[in-house]
From TrEMBL:
GO terms for cellular component: plasma membrane. PROSITE patterns: HIS_KIN. The keyword Transmembrane applies. SMART domains: HATPase_c, HisKA. This is histidine kinase. Keywords: ATP-binding, Cell membrane, Kinase, Membrane, Nucleotide-binding, Phosphoprotein, Transferase, Transmembrane, Transmembrane helix. Its EC number is 2.7.13.3. InterPro entries: 2C_sensor_his_kinase, HATPase_C_sf, HATPase_dom, His_kinase_dom, HisK_dim/P_dom, HisK_dim/P_sf, RegB, Sig_transdc_His_kin-like_C. It comes from Parvularcula dongshanensis. NCBIfam families: ActS_PrrB_HisK. It comes from the Bacteria. It holds the Pfam family HisKA. It is a multi-pass membrane protein. The keyword Transferase applies.
Length: 456
């Protein structure tokens, strides 16, 4: 039964979710609570309790906590083995208290759910199953062997066997369900954190590349003068020298010219690649996003610009890394699964800009459409699309999630579906921006800045 609600959780290893300080704090809370409850039942209600054994068991828990606190740094992250050991000790300590106070008939038997839940949310499946198995084993022993439940009468209080069986079954089910749910939630959080970290790394790389473009432009400007001087000197040497030396001078001239060509290219790249201030046309934006796939073998990429209602073409768009990298991820997926053609169609009105990417591939599997955009779809989703497109093609998942997150940061909204068979079939992804989020306009000084976003 354990983890059957979240079978895909077994494919990822969770990280320990808490530090030693957190565990010590929870232990102090549990120990103080145990002392207060024992005092209330024994002296407040007057119920007979085996105080000696009870206080000895509680003292063992306190001693373990003190030993841990003074021999280890509280801020130390717990290893998986450490979490397993400490939760095992806590399970046995709580079970010992319950053994002396009525077993699973004791209302506080529900506290045995806590170690199982903490293990499921902090450990890999196999290690968490050890703690869950220990908890269920303790519940089974407590259902069969225990001291009488404290009561006012000398013979104590005992529930009917059938009722105790029902209690055992309910507690076991609660442990299994709670552990499964906690493990699933922890895995979803871990996957989301990993996806966000990957997205941030990718975006930081794009920004570093854009900054390097600016540095390259500055270096090209600074190197232009010494290269010009070298070229002039080499021409003078070429006129005066003979034989092999004349050929060497000619080679020097040709190489300086080559250097100047490279520097001009770098200077141009620095101007167009600036992530904040550069401006480019809609066609240039789309082609830059598709640049890695234009000359590569594979499907052809067609570009179409189609205005809505004759609106003028937006020619001054901000070059934002999020837009280019997000569109590139969508195009990468389309190129992977297209049979022959990927179409990038841009349409615009006075208020909105829409970019639609379609391919003539197998399309999205029906069971995947509702989950597309999650950091990692369920394990069967990539398999379905892979089976349609060929065993060598990777499925969707993290790439589309990154694209969606990046584009939504620019104010875009994404929709995805499959084209009808009458239109050629294949997957279709549509991205819509408020035009004000992308268009630049000149200021009174001749500079450019984003148009203030309109209120829609």
């Amino acid at each position: 039964m354990f983890f059957t609600l979240f079978p895909e959780a077994a494919t990822m290893r969770p990280l320990p979710a808490f530090r030693l300080r957190t565990l010590i704090g929870m232990r102090w809370f549990a120990s103080i609570g145990q002392v207060l409850v024992v005092a209330l039942v024994a002296f407040g209600f007057g119920y007979p309790l085996p105080l000696g054994p009870l206080l000895a068991v509680i003292a063992v828990g306190v001693w373990v906590n003190l030993y841990t606190q003074f021999t280890r740094k509280p801020g130390t992250p717990l290893t998986e083995g450490g979490i397993l050991l400490h939760l095992g000790i806590d399970t046995l300590q709580i079970s010992s208290v319950l053994f002396l106070t009525g077993g699973i008939q004791n209302p506080f038997a529900v506290w045995l759910i806590m170690p199982a839940m903490l293990a499921a949310s902090s450990l890999p499946r196999a290690r968490a199953a050890v703690t869950v198995g220990l908890v269920i084993a303790c519940l089974t022993v407590l259902a069969l062997l225990h001291y009488p439940l404290p009561w006012r009468t000398a013979e104590g209080f005992a529930l009917p066997p059938v009722y105790r069986l029902g209690l055992w079954f309910a507690l076991t089910m609660a442990v299994g369900f709670t552990a499964s749910y906690a493990h699933g939630v922890a895995r979803e959080q871990a996957k989301l954190a990993a996806a966000l970290a990957t997205m941030q790394t990718s975006l930081a790389r794009e920004e570093r590349l854009a900054a390097l473009d600016g540095l390259a432009a500055a270096a090209a400007h600074e190197l232009g003068t010494p290269l010009g001087t070298i070229q002039v000197t080499a021409r003078e040497m070429e006129r005066e020298l003979e034989g092999d030396l004349k050929e060497d001078a000619a080679l020097l001239i040709s190489q300086t010219q080559r250097c100047q060509t490279i520097l001009r290219r770098l200077s141009s790249a620095g101007t167009t690649g600036d992530a904040v201030h550069s401006v480019l046309s809609l066609d240039a934006l789309l082609r830059e996003a598709a640049a890695p796939f234009l000359d590569a073998p594979g499907p052809r990429i067609d570009f179409r610009l189609d205005p809505d209602s004759g609106a003028p073409l937006p020619e001054r768009l901000r070059r934002r890394p999020e837009v280019i990298y997000g569109l590139r991820n969508i195009l990468e997926n389309a190129v992977k699964f297209a049979r022959g053609t990927v179409t990038v169609e841009a349409s615009w009105s006075d208020r909105f800009l829409t970019v639609t990417v379609t391919d003539d591939g197998p399309g999205f599997p029906d069971g995947m459409l509702s989950r597309l955009g999650e950091p990692y779809p369920r394990a069967d989703a990539p398999r379905l699309r892979t089976e349609r497109a060929g065993a060598d093609k990777a499925g969707l998942g993290l790439g589309f999630f990154i694209a969606k997150t990046l584009l939504e940061r620019t104010g875009a909204s994404l929709t995805h579906d499959n084209r009808p068979a009458g239109e050629g079939g294949g997957a279709r992804v549509r991205v819509v921006w408020p035009l004000a989020n992308l268009v630049m306009r000149p200021t009174s000084r001749g500079e450019t800045r984003p148009i203030e976003a309109a209120q829609f």
